[in-house]
Amino acid sequence: MLSTMQDAPLLVSGIMRHGQQVYGDSQVITITGPAGEYLEASFTEVAERAERLAAALERLGVGDSDRVGTFLWNNQTHLEAYLGIPGMGAVLHTLNLRLFPEQLAFVINHAEDKVIIVDGSLIPLLARVRDQLGTVKHIVVVGDGDPSALGETLSYEELLGAEEPGYDWPTFDERQAAAMCYTSGTTGNPKGVVYSHRSTYLHTMAITSGSSLGINELDRVLSIVPMFHANAWGTPYGAFLTGADLIMPQMFLQAEPLVATIARHRPTLSAGVPTIWSDLLRYAQTHEVDLSSLRLITAGGAAVPRTLIERFQDELGIEMVQGWGMTETSPLCSLALPPRGTPPEEEMNWRAKTGRVVPGVEIRVVGEDGTVLPNDGESVGEFEARGPWIAGSYYNDPTPERFHDGWLRTGDIGSLDRRGYMQISDRTKDVIKSGGEWISSVELENEVMAHPGVVEAAVIAVPDERWSERPLVVVVLESDTTLNADELLEFLTGRVSRWWLPERWVFIQEIPKTSVGKFDKKVLRSQHADGVFEVVEVEIKTGR
Ligand code: ADP
Question: Which residue, 204, 278, 476, 490, has most beta carbons within 10 Å?
Fold first, then answer.
Protein backbone atom coordinates (compact mmCIF):
# COMPACT_ATOMS: atom_id res chain seq x y z
CA MET A 1 0.00 0.00 0.00
CA LEU A 2 1.36 3.41 -0.90
CA SER A 3 0.95 6.41 1.33
CA THR A 4 -1.49 9.22 0.68
CA MET A 5 1.22 11.83 1.11
CA GLN A 6 2.40 14.28 -1.51
CA ASP A 7 5.59 13.39 -3.29
CA ALA A 8 7.27 16.80 -3.14
CA PRO A 9 10.91 16.42 -4.24
CA LEU A 10 13.57 17.60 -1.81
CA LEU A 11 15.43 20.20 -3.87
CA VAL A 12 18.08 22.81 -3.11
CA SER A 13 15.68 25.40 -4.57
CA GLY A 14 13.38 24.47 -1.67
CA ILE A 15 16.13 25.43 0.80
CA MET A 16 16.59 28.71 -1.00
CA ARG A 17 12.91 29.55 -1.27
CA HIS A 18 12.34 28.92 2.40
CA GLY A 19 15.22 31.18 3.43
CA GLN A 20 14.09 33.81 0.97
CA GLN A 21 10.42 33.81 1.91
CA VAL A 22 10.61 33.29 5.65
CA TYR A 23 13.95 34.77 6.67
CA GLY A 24 14.44 37.47 4.04
CA ASP A 25 15.95 39.88 6.57
CA SER A 26 18.66 37.54 7.80
CA GLN A 27 22.14 38.67 6.87
CA VAL A 28 25.17 37.47 5.00
CA ILE A 29 28.31 39.32 6.03
CA THR A 30 31.49 39.01 3.99
CA ILE A 31 34.77 40.27 5.41
CA THR A 32 36.43 42.19 2.59
CA GLY A 33 39.56 43.70 4.06
CA PRO A 34 42.34 43.09 6.56
CA ALA A 35 41.10 45.90 8.81
CA GLY A 36 37.70 44.27 9.15
CA GLU A 37 35.95 45.99 6.24
CA TYR A 38 32.83 44.09 5.32
CA LEU A 39 29.84 43.83 2.99
CA GLU A 40 26.34 43.01 4.14
CA ALA A 41 23.42 41.59 2.18
CA SER A 42 20.04 40.24 3.22
CA PHE A 43 18.82 36.76 2.32
CA THR A 44 16.33 38.48 0.00
CA GLU A 45 19.17 40.15 -1.88
CA VAL A 46 21.28 36.99 -1.98
CA ALA A 47 18.36 34.91 -3.32
CA GLU A 48 17.62 37.53 -5.98
CA ARG A 49 21.22 37.45 -7.09
CA ALA A 50 21.07 33.63 -7.17
CA GLU A 51 18.07 33.99 -9.48
CA ARG A 52 20.00 36.31 -11.77
CA LEU A 53 22.96 33.93 -11.71
CA ALA A 54 20.74 31.02 -12.79
CA ALA A 55 19.28 33.10 -15.62
CA ALA A 56 22.76 34.20 -16.71
CA LEU A 57 24.14 30.67 -16.71
CA GLU A 58 21.19 29.49 -18.72
CA ARG A 59 21.88 32.22 -21.26
CA LEU A 60 25.49 31.00 -21.44
CA GLY A 61 24.20 27.58 -22.42
CA VAL A 62 24.45 25.82 -19.07
CA GLY A 63 21.79 23.12 -19.04
CA ASP A 64 20.56 20.34 -16.86
CA SER A 65 23.39 18.47 -15.09
CA ASP A 66 26.16 20.61 -16.59
CA ARG A 67 28.96 21.15 -14.12
CA VAL A 68 29.84 24.64 -12.96
CA GLY A 69 33.08 24.89 -11.02
CA THR A 70 33.59 27.49 -8.30
CA PHE A 71 37.08 28.70 -7.50
CA LEU A 72 36.03 31.00 -4.69
CA TRP A 73 36.60 31.90 -1.06
CA ASN A 74 33.89 31.66 1.58
CA ASN A 75 31.90 34.71 0.61
CA GLN A 76 28.52 35.93 -0.55
CA THR A 77 29.19 35.10 -4.21
CA HIS A 78 29.96 31.52 -3.27
CA LEU A 79 26.66 31.33 -1.43
CA GLU A 80 24.86 32.65 -4.52
CA ALA A 81 26.52 29.84 -6.49
CA TYR A 82 25.54 27.29 -3.83
CA LEU A 83 21.92 28.31 -4.32
CA GLY A 84 21.65 29.24 -7.99
CA ILE A 85 23.66 26.46 -9.65
CA PRO A 86 21.90 23.41 -8.12
CA GLY A 87 18.63 25.36 -8.10
CA MET A 88 18.60 25.55 -11.91
CA GLY A 89 19.45 21.84 -12.26
CA ALA A 90 23.17 22.26 -12.95
CA VAL A 91 25.85 20.78 -10.71
CA LEU A 92 27.94 22.90 -8.33
CA HIS A 93 31.54 21.70 -8.32
CA THR A 94 33.47 23.38 -5.53
CA LEU A 95 37.18 23.48 -6.40
CA ASN A 96 39.83 23.24 -3.71
CA LEU A 97 41.91 26.44 -3.87
CA ARG A 98 44.94 24.70 -2.42
CA LEU A 99 45.33 21.79 -4.81
CA PHE A 100 48.56 21.35 -6.72
CA PRO A 101 48.08 22.48 -10.35
CA GLU A 102 48.07 18.96 -11.75
CA GLN A 103 45.35 17.89 -9.29
CA LEU A 104 43.30 20.99 -10.01
CA ALA A 105 43.45 20.30 -13.75
CA PHE A 106 42.62 16.66 -13.06
CA VAL A 107 39.44 17.39 -11.10
CA ILE A 108 38.17 20.03 -13.54
CA ASN A 109 38.72 17.69 -16.49
CA HIS A 110 37.40 14.64 -14.69
CA ALA A 111 34.21 16.45 -13.68
CA GLU A 112 34.04 18.03 -17.18
CA ASP A 113 33.29 21.48 -15.83
CA LYS A 114 31.69 23.69 -18.48
CA VAL A 115 31.93 27.00 -16.67
CA ILE A 116 34.23 28.15 -13.88
CA ILE A 117 33.44 31.07 -11.61
CA VAL A 118 36.71 32.44 -10.23
CA ASP A 119 37.49 35.12 -7.68
CA GLY A 120 39.66 37.93 -9.07
CA SER A 121 42.29 37.29 -6.38
CA LEU A 122 42.65 33.67 -7.54
CA ILE A 123 43.17 34.30 -11.26
CA PRO A 124 46.92 33.48 -11.15
CA LEU A 125 46.19 30.05 -9.60
CA LEU A 126 43.66 29.14 -12.26
CA ALA A 127 45.81 30.61 -15.03
CA ARG A 128 48.50 28.01 -14.29
CA VAL A 129 46.21 25.25 -15.58
CA ARG A 130 44.07 27.18 -18.09
CA ASP A 131 45.61 25.57 -21.18
CA GLN A 132 44.97 22.08 -19.81
CA LEU A 133 41.22 22.52 -19.41
CA GLY A 134 39.51 20.78 -22.29
CA THR A 135 35.85 21.13 -21.34
CA VAL A 136 35.66 24.67 -19.95
CA LYS A 137 33.70 26.98 -22.28
CA HIS A 138 33.43 30.08 -20.12
CA ILE A 139 35.33 31.60 -17.22
CA VAL A 140 33.42 34.10 -15.14
CA VAL A 141 35.48 36.49 -13.02
CA VAL A 142 34.22 37.95 -9.76
CA GLY A 143 35.57 41.30 -8.58
CA ASP A 144 38.90 42.91 -9.39
CA GLY A 145 41.98 41.36 -10.89
CA ASP A 146 43.55 41.27 -14.32
CA PRO A 147 41.90 38.35 -16.11
CA SER A 148 44.06 38.52 -19.25
CA ALA A 149 46.07 35.44 -18.22
CA LEU A 150 42.87 33.41 -18.51
CA GLY A 151 42.16 34.37 -22.12
CA GLU A 152 38.59 35.36 -22.81
CA THR A 153 36.54 35.87 -19.65
CA LEU A 154 33.18 37.25 -18.58
CA SER A 155 32.38 39.52 -15.67
CA TYR A 156 30.14 38.09 -12.95
CA GLU A 157 28.60 41.47 -12.17
CA GLU A 158 27.92 42.24 -15.81
CA LEU A 159 26.26 38.87 -16.31
CA LEU A 160 24.04 39.34 -13.27
CA GLY A 161 23.33 42.96 -14.19
CA ALA A 162 21.91 41.88 -17.54
CA GLU A 163 19.26 39.67 -15.92
CA GLU A 164 16.12 40.26 -13.92
CA PRO A 165 15.37 38.59 -10.58
CA GLY A 166 12.49 36.10 -10.48
CA TYR A 167 13.94 32.94 -12.06
CA ASP A 168 11.43 30.15 -12.31
CA TRP A 169 13.13 27.28 -10.48
CA PRO A 170 12.48 23.97 -12.24
CA THR A 171 11.23 20.82 -10.53
CA PHE A 172 13.00 17.53 -11.18
CA ASP A 173 13.90 14.22 -9.61
CA GLU A 174 15.37 14.75 -6.15
CA ARG A 175 18.00 12.09 -6.86
CA GLN A 176 19.54 14.27 -9.55
CA ALA A 177 23.06 15.59 -8.89
CA ALA A 178 23.20 18.89 -7.01
CA ALA A 179 26.89 19.25 -6.20
CA MET A 180 30.19 17.48 -6.36
CA CYS A 181 33.29 17.53 -4.28
CA TYR A 182 36.56 15.66 -4.72
CA THR A 183 38.41 14.11 -1.81
CA SER A 184 41.77 15.75 -1.29
CA GLY A 185 43.50 12.70 -2.70
CA THR A 186 45.99 11.80 -0.03
CA THR A 187 46.67 8.64 -2.03
CA GLY A 188 46.38 8.66 -5.80
CA ASN A 189 44.12 10.98 -7.72
CA PRO A 190 41.23 12.74 -5.97
CA LYS A 191 37.91 10.90 -6.10
CA GLY A 192 34.65 12.62 -6.97
CA VAL A 193 31.63 12.42 -4.71
CA VAL A 194 28.32 13.55 -6.21
CA TYR A 195 25.67 14.77 -3.79
CA SER A 196 22.01 14.62 -4.82
CA HIS A 197 19.37 17.22 -4.04
CA ARG A 198 17.79 14.71 -1.71
CA SER A 199 21.02 13.95 0.14
CA THR A 200 21.78 17.66 0.44
CA TYR A 201 18.33 18.48 1.76
CA LEU A 202 18.34 15.66 4.30
CA HIS A 203 21.87 16.51 5.42
CA THR A 204 20.75 20.11 5.89
CA MET A 205 17.86 18.97 8.07
CA ALA A 206 20.31 16.86 10.05
CA ILE A 207 22.76 19.64 10.81
CA THR A 208 19.99 21.99 11.84
CA SER A 209 18.34 19.41 14.05
CA GLY A 210 18.48 19.68 17.83
CA SER A 211 20.30 16.34 17.89
CA SER A 212 23.29 17.97 16.22
CA LEU A 213 24.16 21.65 15.78
CA GLY A 214 20.59 22.89 16.19
CA ILE A 215 21.21 25.80 13.78
CA ASN A 216 18.30 28.23 13.96
CA GLU A 217 17.29 31.85 13.46
CA LEU A 218 18.91 32.94 16.71
CA ASP A 219 22.29 31.83 15.42
CA ARG A 220 25.00 33.60 13.53
CA VAL A 221 27.23 31.07 11.82
CA LEU A 222 30.88 31.86 11.19
CA SER A 223 31.77 29.75 8.18
CA ILE A 224 35.47 28.99 8.65
CA VAL A 225 35.75 25.57 7.05
CA PRO A 226 36.19 26.23 3.33
CA MET A 227 33.18 25.88 1.08
CA PHE A 228 35.29 23.50 -1.03
CA HIS A 229 35.97 21.21 1.95
CA ALA A 230 32.95 18.89 2.01
CA ASN A 231 30.74 21.90 1.26
CA ALA A 232 31.70 23.75 4.45
CA TRP A 233 30.22 20.83 6.37
CA GLY A 234 26.75 21.89 5.27
CA THR A 235 26.69 25.13 7.27
CA PRO A 236 25.75 27.47 4.36
CA TYR A 237 22.61 25.49 3.54
CA GLY A 238 21.83 24.95 7.21
CA ALA A 239 21.96 28.69 7.85
CA PHE A 240 19.96 29.61 4.77
CA LEU A 241 17.20 27.13 5.54
CA THR A 242 16.79 28.29 9.12
CA GLY A 243 17.47 32.02 8.85
CA ALA A 244 20.75 32.03 10.79
CA ASP A 245 23.02 34.90 9.74
CA LEU A 246 26.16 33.82 7.90
CA ILE A 247 29.55 35.41 8.47
CA MET A 248 32.01 34.70 5.67
CA PRO A 249 35.71 35.37 6.39
CA GLN A 250 37.08 34.98 2.84
CA MET A 251 40.88 34.84 3.03
CA PHE A 252 41.06 36.48 6.47
CA LEU A 253 41.50 33.21 8.32
CA GLN A 254 44.52 33.94 10.48
CA ALA A 255 43.93 34.15 14.22
CA GLU A 256 44.11 37.93 14.44
CA PRO A 257 41.46 38.84 11.84
CA LEU A 258 39.30 35.90 12.93
CA VAL A 259 39.28 37.09 16.52
CA ALA A 260 38.40 40.60 15.34
CA THR A 261 35.59 39.20 13.19
CA ILE A 262 34.21 37.25 16.14
CA ALA A 263 34.33 40.26 18.46
CA ARG A 264 32.64 42.51 15.93
CA HIS A 265 30.05 40.24 14.30
CA ARG A 266 29.31 38.03 17.28
CA PRO A 267 28.80 34.58 15.79
CA THR A 268 27.17 31.97 17.99
CA LEU A 269 28.38 28.92 16.09
CA SER A 270 31.41 27.94 14.09
CA ALA A 271 33.15 24.89 12.68
CA GLY A 272 36.73 24.24 11.65
CA VAL A 273 39.66 21.85 11.65
CA PRO A 274 41.68 21.61 14.89
CA THR A 275 44.67 23.55 13.50
CA ILE A 276 42.52 26.68 13.04
CA TRP A 277 41.27 26.43 16.61
CA SER A 278 44.68 25.84 18.11
CA ASP A 279 46.05 28.93 16.30
CA LEU A 280 43.15 30.92 17.68
CA LEU A 281 43.70 29.62 21.19
CA ARG A 282 47.39 30.51 21.13
CA TYR A 283 46.55 34.01 19.96
CA ALA A 284 43.92 34.36 22.69
CA GLN A 285 46.47 33.37 25.33
CA THR A 286 48.54 36.48 24.67
CA HIS A 287 45.93 39.02 23.56
CA GLU A 288 42.78 40.61 24.88
CA VAL A 289 39.93 38.83 23.07
CA ASP A 290 36.14 38.73 23.20
CA LEU A 291 34.83 35.41 21.99
CA SER A 292 31.86 35.38 24.35
CA SER A 293 29.24 35.24 21.59
CA LEU A 294 30.10 31.63 20.67
CA ARG A 295 27.66 29.12 22.13
CA LEU A 296 29.23 26.12 20.44
CA ILE A 297 32.13 25.39 18.15
CA THR A 298 32.80 22.13 16.42
CA ALA A 299 36.15 20.76 15.44
CA GLY A 300 36.64 17.84 13.11
CA GLY A 301 38.21 16.71 9.87
CA ALA A 302 41.09 15.34 11.93
CA ALA A 303 41.47 14.04 15.45
CA VAL A 304 40.91 16.82 17.96
CA PRO A 305 43.32 16.76 20.91
CA ARG A 306 41.44 16.57 24.19
CA THR A 307 43.62 19.32 25.62
CA LEU A 308 42.40 21.68 22.92
CA ILE A 309 38.79 21.10 23.98
CA GLU A 310 39.74 21.49 27.63
CA ARG A 311 41.65 24.70 27.06
CA PHE A 312 38.80 26.26 25.11
CA GLN A 313 36.55 25.46 28.04
CA ASP A 314 38.88 26.44 30.87
CA GLU A 315 40.64 29.44 29.37
CA LEU A 316 37.92 30.87 27.13
CA GLY A 317 34.69 29.42 28.52
CA ILE A 318 33.74 28.11 25.08
CA GLU A 319 32.13 24.76 24.49
CA MET A 320 33.89 22.80 21.76
CA VAL A 321 32.61 19.45 20.54
CA GLN A 322 34.32 17.04 18.25
CA GLY A 323 32.66 15.77 15.09
CA TRP A 324 33.55 13.21 12.47
CA GLY A 325 32.77 12.93 8.81
CA MET A 326 34.23 12.65 5.34
CA THR A 327 33.68 14.19 1.93
CA GLU A 328 31.96 10.89 1.13
CA THR A 329 29.48 11.39 3.98
CA SER A 330 28.33 14.96 3.13
CA PRO A 331 30.08 15.12 5.78
CA LEU A 332 28.15 15.05 9.06
CA CYS A 333 28.00 11.59 10.61
CA SER A 334 28.69 12.10 14.26
CA LEU A 335 28.96 14.84 16.84
CA ALA A 336 30.22 14.27 20.37
CA LEU A 337 27.40 15.87 22.35
CA PRO A 338 27.34 14.34 25.84
CA PRO A 339 24.47 11.98 26.70
CA ARG A 340 21.70 13.14 29.01
CA GLY A 341 22.37 13.01 32.70
CA THR A 342 26.09 13.72 32.33
CA PRO A 343 27.37 15.67 35.35
CA PRO A 344 29.27 18.82 34.28
CA GLU A 345 32.60 17.44 35.50
CA GLU A 346 32.26 14.44 33.15
CA GLU A 347 31.18 16.31 30.03
CA MET A 348 34.71 16.51 28.73
CA ASN A 349 35.02 12.73 28.56
CA TRP A 350 32.22 12.72 26.02
CA ARG A 351 33.05 15.84 24.05
CA ALA A 352 36.56 14.55 23.46
CA LYS A 353 35.26 11.38 21.82
CA THR A 354 35.23 11.29 18.05
CA GLY A 355 31.47 11.73 17.91
CA ARG A 356 28.02 10.29 18.52
CA VAL A 357 26.22 9.01 15.45
CA VAL A 358 23.57 11.52 14.35
CA PRO A 359 20.01 10.46 13.48
CA GLY A 360 19.87 9.35 9.86
CA VAL A 361 23.28 7.70 9.74
CA GLU A 362 24.23 4.13 10.59
CA ILE A 363 27.75 3.18 11.62
CA ARG A 364 29.16 -0.27 12.23
CA VAL A 365 32.57 -1.65 13.06
CA VAL A 366 33.94 -4.43 10.89
CA GLY A 367 36.87 -6.71 11.67
CA GLU A 368 39.69 -7.59 9.29
CA ASP A 369 37.87 -10.78 8.30
CA GLY A 370 34.74 -8.84 7.29
CA THR A 371 32.61 -9.74 10.30
CA VAL A 372 30.59 -7.11 12.08
CA LEU A 373 31.93 -6.47 15.59
CA PRO A 374 29.82 -5.64 18.65
CA ASN A 375 29.13 -2.05 19.69
CA ASP A 376 30.85 -2.58 23.00
CA GLY A 377 33.20 0.39 22.98
CA GLU A 378 36.16 -1.99 22.91
CA SER A 379 36.17 -4.05 19.73
CA VAL A 380 38.33 -2.27 17.19
CA GLY A 381 37.84 -2.48 13.44
CA GLU A 382 37.05 -0.36 10.39
CA PHE A 383 34.04 1.96 10.54
CA GLU A 384 31.49 1.47 7.80
CA ALA A 385 28.71 3.97 7.15
CA ARG A 386 25.30 3.81 5.56
CA GLY A 387 22.54 6.34 5.07
CA PRO A 388 20.77 8.71 2.67
CA TRP A 389 23.67 11.20 2.63
CA ILE A 390 26.49 8.64 2.43
CA ALA A 391 28.20 7.94 -0.92
CA GLY A 392 27.36 4.64 -2.57
CA SER A 393 30.04 4.98 -5.26
CA TYR A 394 32.56 7.45 -6.69
CA TYR A 395 32.02 9.45 -9.85
CA ASN A 396 33.38 7.57 -12.89
CA ASP A 397 35.83 5.72 -10.73
CA PRO A 398 34.84 2.15 -9.96
CA THR A 399 36.34 1.18 -6.62
CA PRO A 400 34.37 -1.80 -5.33
CA GLU A 401 36.93 -2.30 -2.58
CA ARG A 402 35.74 0.92 -0.92
CA PHE A 403 32.25 -0.51 -0.39
CA HIS A 404 31.01 -3.53 1.50
CA ASP A 405 27.47 -4.92 1.15
CA GLY A 406 26.07 -1.46 0.47
CA TRP A 407 28.10 0.24 3.22
CA LEU A 408 30.89 2.76 2.66
CA ARG A 409 34.24 1.62 4.01
CA THR A 410 35.58 4.71 5.71
CA GLY A 411 39.22 3.72 6.08
CA ASP A 412 39.02 4.79 9.71
CA ILE A 413 39.73 2.38 12.54
CA GLY A 414 38.14 2.52 15.95
CA SER A 415 35.38 1.36 18.25
CA LEU A 416 31.70 2.16 18.75
CA ASP A 417 29.83 1.92 22.02
CA ARG A 418 26.23 0.95 22.72
CA ARG A 419 25.12 4.57 22.76
CA GLY A 420 26.61 5.37 19.36
CA TYR A 421 29.83 7.07 20.47
CA MET A 422 32.68 6.48 18.05
CA GLN A 423 36.31 6.56 19.03
CA ILE A 424 38.83 6.67 16.20
CA SER A 425 42.28 5.32 16.82
CA ASP A 426 43.68 5.70 13.31
CA ARG A 427 43.20 5.78 9.59
CA THR A 428 44.03 2.47 7.96
CA LYS A 429 46.91 4.12 6.11
CA ASP A 430 48.37 5.60 9.30
CA VAL A 431 48.24 2.64 11.67
CA ILE A 432 51.36 1.57 13.51
CA LYS A 433 51.69 -2.15 13.86
CA SER A 434 54.30 -2.87 16.48
CA GLY A 435 55.06 -6.44 17.47
CA GLY A 436 51.71 -7.54 16.02
CA GLU A 437 49.71 -4.98 18.06
CA TRP A 438 48.31 -1.62 17.05
CA ILE A 439 49.54 1.59 18.56
CA SER A 440 47.05 4.40 18.08
CA SER A 441 48.79 7.39 16.54
CA VAL A 442 45.74 9.52 17.42
CA GLU A 443 45.97 8.67 21.11
CA LEU A 444 49.73 9.08 21.24
CA GLU A 445 49.46 12.50 19.56
CA ASN A 446 46.79 13.46 22.06
CA GLU A 447 49.02 12.62 24.98
CA VAL A 448 52.06 14.42 23.60
CA MET A 449 49.94 17.49 22.85
CA ALA A 450 48.70 17.46 26.44
CA HIS A 451 52.13 18.85 27.42
CA PRO A 452 51.81 22.63 27.70
CA GLY A 453 55.14 23.14 25.94
CA VAL A 454 53.97 21.33 22.80
CA VAL A 455 52.22 23.21 20.00
CA GLU A 456 51.66 20.30 17.62
CA ALA A 457 52.59 16.64 17.45
CA ALA A 458 52.11 14.08 14.71
CA VAL A 459 52.98 10.43 15.02
CA ILE A 460 53.92 8.23 12.06
CA ALA A 461 54.96 4.61 11.72
CA VAL A 462 58.59 3.95 10.86
CA PRO A 463 60.20 0.59 10.07
CA ASP A 464 61.87 -1.18 12.96
CA GLU A 465 63.92 -4.36 12.74
CA ARG A 466 62.69 -5.88 15.94
CA TRP A 467 59.07 -4.72 16.15
CA SER A 468 58.41 -4.28 12.40
CA GLU A 469 57.09 -0.77 13.04
CA ARG A 470 57.52 1.80 15.79
CA PRO A 471 56.07 5.28 16.30
CA LEU A 472 58.09 8.35 15.47
CA VAL A 473 56.86 11.58 17.05
CA VAL A 474 57.25 14.82 15.14
CA VAL A 475 56.93 17.73 17.55
CA VAL A 476 56.61 21.49 17.29
CA LEU A 477 57.52 23.17 20.57
CA GLU A 478 56.43 26.51 21.97
CA SER A 479 59.12 29.06 21.16
CA ASP A 480 59.91 29.77 24.80
CA THR A 481 60.55 26.20 25.87
CA THR A 482 63.68 24.08 25.97
CA LEU A 483 61.90 20.75 26.30
CA ASN A 484 63.76 17.72 25.06
CA ALA A 485 62.83 14.17 24.11
CA ASP A 486 63.75 12.71 27.51
CA GLU A 487 61.44 15.12 29.29
CA LEU A 488 58.61 14.40 26.89
CA LEU A 489 59.13 10.71 27.34
CA GLU A 490 58.97 11.13 31.08
CA PHE A 491 55.74 13.10 30.68
CA LEU A 492 54.27 10.26 28.61
CA THR A 493 55.26 7.57 31.09
CA GLY A 494 52.15 6.47 32.91
CA ARG A 495 49.89 8.20 30.38
CA VAL A 496 50.20 5.49 27.71
CA SER A 497 51.07 1.79 27.81
CA ARG A 498 54.74 1.22 28.38
CA TRP A 499 55.22 -0.53 25.05
CA TRP A 500 53.83 2.50 23.24
CA LEU A 501 56.53 4.82 24.58
CA PRO A 502 58.26 6.19 21.47
CA GLU A 503 62.00 6.05 21.21
CA ARG A 504 62.23 8.26 18.10
CA TRP A 505 61.61 12.00 18.22
CA VAL A 506 61.94 14.79 15.71
CA PHE A 507 61.67 18.51 16.48
CA ILE A 508 60.65 20.83 13.67
CA GLN A 509 59.25 24.35 13.21
CA GLU A 510 55.93 23.42 11.62
CA ILE A 511 54.10 20.25 10.69
CA PRO A 512 53.27 20.15 6.98
CA LYS A 513 49.51 20.44 6.36
CA THR A 514 47.24 19.13 3.62
CA SER A 515 45.14 21.37 1.39
CA VAL A 516 42.44 21.41 4.06
CA GLY A 517 44.74 22.03 7.01
CA LYS A 518 45.28 18.53 8.40
CA PHE A 519 48.64 17.09 9.44
CA ASP A 520 50.11 15.70 6.22
CA LYS A 521 51.48 12.36 7.36
CA LYS A 522 52.24 11.30 3.81
CA VAL A 523 54.72 14.17 3.53
CA LEU A 524 56.15 13.37 6.97
CA ARG A 525 56.66 9.74 5.99
CA SER A 526 58.44 10.64 2.78
CA GLN A 527 60.57 13.29 4.51
CA HIS A 528 61.62 10.70 7.05
CA ALA A 529 62.37 8.14 4.33
CA ASP A 530 64.47 10.75 2.49
CA GLY A 531 66.50 11.37 5.63
CA VAL A 532 65.33 14.98 5.98
CA PHE A 533 64.81 14.69 9.72
CA GLU A 534 67.33 14.70 12.48
CA VAL A 535 65.94 11.93 14.66
CA VAL A 536 66.64 11.99 18.38
CA GLU A 537 66.74 8.43 19.70
CA VAL A 538 66.06 7.90 23.37
CA GLU A 539 66.44 4.74 25.32
CA ILE A 540 63.37 3.28 26.97
CA LYS A 541 64.74 2.00 30.24
CA THR A 542 62.34 -0.69 31.33
CA GLY A 543 61.35 -3.49 28.95
CA ARG A 544 58.08 -3.31 27.17
P1 ADP B 1 40.69 13.55 3.15
O2 ADP B 1 40.24 12.10 3.20
O3 ADP B 1 41.32 13.90 1.91
O4 ADP B 1 41.44 13.97 4.39
P5 ADP B 1 38.15 14.39 4.16
O6 ADP B 1 38.06 15.75 4.69
O7 ADP B 1 36.99 13.82 3.49
O8 ADP B 1 39.36 14.41 3.18
O9 ADP B 1 38.65 13.49 5.34
C10 ADP B 1 37.88 12.57 6.03
C11 ADP B 1 38.75 11.92 7.04
O12 ADP B 1 39.14 12.85 8.04
C13 ADP B 1 38.08 10.81 7.82
O14 ADP B 1 38.07 9.61 7.09
C15 ADP B 1 38.98 10.73 9.04
O16 ADP B 1 40.15 9.99 8.80
C17 ADP B 1 39.38 12.16 9.26
N18 ADP B 1 38.58 12.73 10.34
C19 ADP B 1 37.51 13.52 10.24
N20 ADP B 1 37.03 13.85 11.46
C21 ADP B 1 37.83 13.24 12.37
C22 ADP B 1 37.89 13.18 13.80
N23 ADP B 1 37.03 13.84 14.57
N24 ADP B 1 38.85 12.42 14.37
C25 ADP B 1 39.75 11.75 13.61
N26 ADP B 1 39.76 11.78 12.27
C27 ADP B 1 38.82 12.51 11.65
Answer: 204
